[in-house]
Amino acid sequence: METVKLNDITVNDLPWKIAYDASRCTMCGSCVATCSFRAIKPKVERRRMVFSEGDFPEPQARFSAVPVIHQVNSIRDYCRGCGMCEKVCPNDAIKPVRNPDTRHPIVTRCLGGDSIKRGGRKNLEGSTRTLDTIRVGRISQMTDPSLDAQRHTFDLLAPFGRILPPKKLPYSATLDNSLETKEKTPPVNWIYPVIIGDMSIGALSWRMWEAVAMATAYLNEECGLPVRMCSGEGGVPVRLLKSKYLKYTILQIASGHFGWNRIVNAMPHMVEDPAGVLIKIGQGAKPGDGGLLMAQKVAKHIQAIRGVPKADLLSPPNHQGLYSIEESVQKMFLSFNAAFKFRVPVAIKVAASATSVSVFNNLVRDPYNIVGGFFLDGIDGGTGAAHEVSLDHTGHPIVSKLRDCYLAAVTQGRQGQIPLWAAGGLGKTGDLAADAFKMICLGANGVFTGKLILQMAGCIGNDLGRCNACNTGLCPAGITTQEPQLAHRLDPDKAAQNIVNYFLAMDQEIKKLMAPIGNSSLPVGRADALVATDRAVADRLQIQHVC
Amino acid sequence: MCRIGAIKSLDYVHPSRALRLMQSQQKGHDNSGFAMVMQNLGGIFESYKHLPTLSMACTDKGIKIAENILHEIGFRRILQWSPEVNDWPGLDINAMPHYVFETFNYPPQYENARRKEREELLLNTRLKLRAALEEDEEGFVYSFWPDVITLKEIGDPHDIGTYFNLWEADSRFTAKVITAQCRQNTNYDIVRYAAHPFHLQGYTALANGENTFYLKNKEFQQRLHRGYIGFESDSQCFLYTLHYVHRELGWPLNYYKHVVTPLPFEEIEKRDDQKQLLAIRQSLAHLEINGPNTIIGMLPDNTLFTCCDAKKLRPVVIGRDERTVVITSEVCGINEILPERNWEDDIYPNERETIVVTDDLEVQRWKQ
Prior knowledge:
Mean pLDDT of chain A: 93
Number of helices of chain A: 16
Mean pLDDT of chain B: 94
Number of strands of chain B: 16
Distance between the termini of chain A: 65 Å
CATH superfamily of chain B: Aminohydrolase, N-terminal nucleophile (Ntn) domain
Strand order of the largest sheet of chain A: 11-21-20-18-17-14-13-12
Largest sheet of chain A: 8 strands, parallel
CATH architecture of chain B: 4-Layer Sandwich
Strand content of chain A: 15-25%
Oligomer: heterodimer
Radius of gyration of chain B: 20 Å
CATH topology of chain B: Glutamine Phosphoribosylpyrophosphate, subunit 1, domain 1
Strand content of chain B: 25-35%
CATH architecture of the largest domain in chain A: Alpha-Beta Barrel
Number of domains of chain A: 2
CATH superfamily of the largest domain in chain A: Aldolase class I
Low-confidence stretches of chain B: none
Low-confidence stretches of chain A: none
Shape of chain B: globular
Number of domains of chain B: 1
Structural class of chain B: alpha+beta
Number of helices of chain B: 10
């Protein structure tokens, strides 16, 4: 037998242990074939077996070589707890079990000499979520009747684009009592108040990205919900750029400018304008850090779309050449507004931060009226790849920051002029309608969501360290991988159907929240409709405390 | 619940008619107050239509404070009238010591000023008076405007009428437009300022309803104009929006309805003026109202109008004869003061209509 040294990695050092019952196993091999992390492998063990063959008990022992399933001791090929083995096992013979004694955070750093990277969300669970201490507590009754969510009509749309202060509207009265204008006003698109957040083709498998695009088109064309998806930083397939469905896509540009060569080249061939342009300055899950696509995910088609070789793709943490808010307004916004001849709204996405209000104030006071949205991304959102220390320890919760920005606008009488869109762990409990509605009452015009979309498609990752392997390119659900055999595990039609159905359910649920407060249009800023069971939350957000 | 009413006539009308209009609807309101705004004044004020009249309820000290301020600015009083009150025991009224209606000449330096400058002066003066009298509740300044009188009090409307001797019609205290309402706003605190009708620079509004977008309206309006203050009632928001849209933005009255109850997006898409209507939904989104409401409004040119919330959850009816038009919450009120009219001509407006009564009493139905 091989000698085991003290510092050798053993299964007990790893975050998950495989519970395997050899007596139930039929040796079909399904689990080994399905484990994308190569965390289990077959091996042969020498086992002692006691048996009796005669009419009377005559126990005998024999040793034989028995094939079994064995967990790999490796900090590279370790079990992520995804549970695919359990899913495919016909006999319930195998499953991963969380290991409370794991030494993984230590041994990985000790052996690798490198920071830990992973995907997913923040994995340090804190106290109760702020949004779960808030309820919709102002119910219309008696003389101010509730509405009927089934019978009444509701206006569930939010603006994306720069809204002019009323006195700057270039309208004047005519003799026949109408309003006329000869001037252009900034473009504004009215869209569904939930945007499918920016996940790049590259971070997602091409089949997953296609599923999201299909779901978006279906929601628009067949369901009448004007849902928009954001491309993420990574370009867009040329076929989509040249199709009429581009109008449902918000193009993102981030500090790496990945994919924009193709976008610019496709401009003369576009038959529709995109839904908008989103300039990504920061991301809530890893604020102060740029995008990260590990080389193992930079497949041939990704190289082609982005125009890059197979290498780790790191977007710089900031836009090179932008050193002030004024500059970002003047340079980037003007150039992107001009690129589509001022027909397409241009918005900014920043990570929530202690300084967000200052940034927002600067933008909302911009005299050019060209910032068409402030996308504020808080901690608790997901990411395809990041350093674990960033994921777990940097960032700012979204709820109070969104509220601060809204109240900053109120103080200046500028609410709504730059629409506020919020994200960061919304829908974490699976109930996005409630989270979105509460954020809207606190002042958001709408919300955007990414991680939840993946979960609709079948992502099994969670915030307790399950899976979170988006960075490896080995996604067991075929969602965040570019490996053809893994990507084909995902059925794009089924994933699209799930997303569509979730949106339809959420649409009903948002109406079920609007009806009792008696509102037929979105209650943006109606904090009086909310109550908080937590005194500190109530004070901080300026809503009623109840107990 | 509120009941609201407005009388517009080619002849001068005494407030007793407004009291009768509202009294017959008393089962619909809670008898907690009475307030009215009279415009296009007759009687003793008829000769002073071009000069501002102050409507104020105050203490002895309040009068002195107010007079000092007005004197300092340079206003010169030329008419003073106080109603003779019947201070009988048992009347349900929470009366102030003085009810002052005074008409002033403009300060000399404003003799040749432009109209707009004078109007700003009047507003600034009213706000100054209000602020000065607010401490210790020395007085309440309801309006300071040419050809407009406002009276508000807490108590039973019937007793308030008795107290001010308003049940007896005479020709001294009359107007061609009277708007009235019979309830203190009990959603919030009982404050005199909370009773509608509200008046601001020639614009008057009163409402029957609940504005569930009150917080949104208020947060937006308080930064729009220095005159948008108080917010003791969610119905003040209707006045401020009217003032903002019609006076500050200079938009035609038909856009008021588009601001307070905008059309659904799918209907806007079908319209020729969709650009304008979308701009309204965008830039004036925080002036939208929600919840059940009926609004009656009056413009500086004596135009009277009414419109409802987009779901038509509050009642209103318009009745008329040759010389008078009445807008009110319940038809029993019109039956009381216009019993001989042809009731088949009564108008029950729908949720997308604005009913407008011009100064020559033409009744127009505008579709949103």
